[in-house]
Fold:
Amino acid sequence: MKKILLILIFLNVGVYALDTQSTLNIYHEIFSSLLGSQKMKVYTRDKELRQVFKHSKKIVLSDTLANSTIILVSSQSDLRRYKKEHIEKLNHIIMFATDYRLLKKYDNIVGAFYWKKGRSQLLFIKHRLDKYHIKLAPKYRAFIVDEL
Amino acid sequence: MCWFFKKQTFIFLFLFLIITNISASEVDTLLNDFTHKNDLSQKTIDENKGHLVLFTREKLEDMNAKTLKDVFKTAPVIYYHENRYGLPDPLASGAFEPYRSNFIRLYVDGVEITQGWMGSGVVLYGDINIDFVDHIEFYYMTPSFETSVEPAYLTIFLYSKDPKRDGGGKIGLMQGSRGHNTQSVSYGEEKENFSYMVNLSRTDAKREKIDNGTDRPLSRDFTRTQLFSYIKTDTQIFHLQLLKKDTDSLAGLSLDATPLQSEVDYLNLHMDYSIAISENWRAQFTYEWLKTNIRQMDDTALALGNQIFSNSLHTENKNSVYTGELTYKNTIGNNHITTGIKGRLKTLDLFDIEEVTNEKLVFDKESILSLFFQNQYVLSEDQLITLGLEYSKILRNGSINDDELYQLRLGYIYSSEKWNYKTYLYRTMFALDPFGRYLHLSEIENTAPQSTIGITQEFSYKNDNNYARIMFLMMQDKNGLLENDGTGKTQYFFTIFNYNYLFDINNKIDIQLYYARYKDIANVDRLDDYSGYFSTSNKYENFNFYNAVVWHQNSIDYVHYFDVTSSISWNASENLTFTLQGENLLNKAKETNLFRINPTTGALLAPLSISPIDQRITLEMEYTF
Structure:
């Protein structure tokens, strides 16, 4: 309970930090659906997400692209950097985005979890999932589109 | 047998559908939980600022709110009101005062926007385009001293969008009744070590004309161009804002509200820079500049404040404001201490008007120096006491009296997962603004500050689907700036009840009731004010629906007013949205009186009854890239 009051006092200090538990809950759900029984070895350059994922018992933060099972793309500069590192050759690693524009721009990204008009949105593209032989559970039906 | 298999298949399909739906709701629940716990407002709300009314980004989108006016008109105490110049001024009385809403202060990203010499920025920014805004917080009661340079009874905080969530570009085009139109373009980007955002908008407001019994009805049309921009790193932020507003100023200075010409033009520049020097220290600097051009003409004398001028007036007025703040925060045991020093200098750089004598131009500087101390002491796991003290010295040149203000806030907060309780006791002192003092120099040059003693309480409850809150406020003024002549003490009481229900992620209702009782204020002995707000927000496939009604009634005439708004949005694609909206659909939105005087006899004429909310249909297109 003390946490509640401390949050009241210090909320405006840690500006724009993510809530750890709700963020982990949604990413655990997304990653486990995409990876099945594979380990969640996540590569991301997003400082906030790295901070959150450190608290996870399921997610292992990877320091290199090649050692990861999923790559989280958060910005255009991420994408440019990954392309320089010839990410297209790592075609067994699943790419997921946190920005709709990245999902639209790069065909290897299977889905995105992003903000739109103050709401979080989840979207997967069917033929891109098929390329990785990913079959999502029926509960995701409302979040899968054939194309953008 | 066949029947049995058919039945089995049916039951199987039925169960499959139920299970699928339940599972789908699981994902929805996770998304909803993430949305609410990571909404940007969750990072900026400061419960110690007072009693909060929050407009999250989601709520603003549901409401299709495009201007601050759309938000104000649903918020108790403020609502939306314009003065006789057609400018936003929630506390305006309809009489001849220049403006009255200095008690309400406006902040953008935690930095106050002022009109400098002329006081609160509400009059200038009260109806701005809010395309750059992520969420809005209103706090009733004297704000935390950490926030305010000058006292206030109500503070409004606008927080801008973050490129991390709203990166890229956005174009918005809107066309409405009578040729009303708005264009807005935004672009934001997050780079490796910094992020930036720019929003440029232009509004050509074509508003309803007001019949004043002549062949020249009153006009309040305006054109406004505004630029909002910032660049920020993890520890620093710099804002640049520009606003140009050229407006037809309704009745303006015309005594009988029949002006031959009534126009006011504003040009405003705002810049601020904040830096977190260390974990404990933060500094902030602000510069504001405002140029005002007033052009007024009538066939008889003109009035501004208590001064009477000839039948033609053209003034140019420039003023600057410089503000500096240094704050220190630390935690020592259970004490969370904030202390700091703030300084503000307001200068009247130019007041070019023939009728004002040289004697009055001597008063052209006002400085404010404030020291504050605030402690939030954690009593137990769910209770907190807050104590704040502030001393301010206001220095004025031109032989005008200086003022000393002593302020106190004492609060108690109880907070659990579902129940919350807050109470505050406070004493606030409030000085007359320099422009008002300047205009009536001989009469009120040495007006003493107003003192207010107040107490507030709030109870709230929330669970996954429900939120209910009731709050009470009682205040009494001594030397009230708004009290009736020769009478005693102005008193206020109001209560607000809110109830929100979330059926599911796509369907919500919002209910609000408000009752206020004022004694000895604005030329009435007693005023009872009632209002209510009811809205529904629904989403079905690619369509969003919003329906709302704001109801008002007061004891002056007990007339019921209803402002009905409806909108439907079609999300044609992920990037493209069309919205059709109707505002004040019944043409029965709240009206208030604009007083008139016969310039020849001095007798009061029948006041004009005017609604600040136009009846308007708009069609809007929004494209993101």
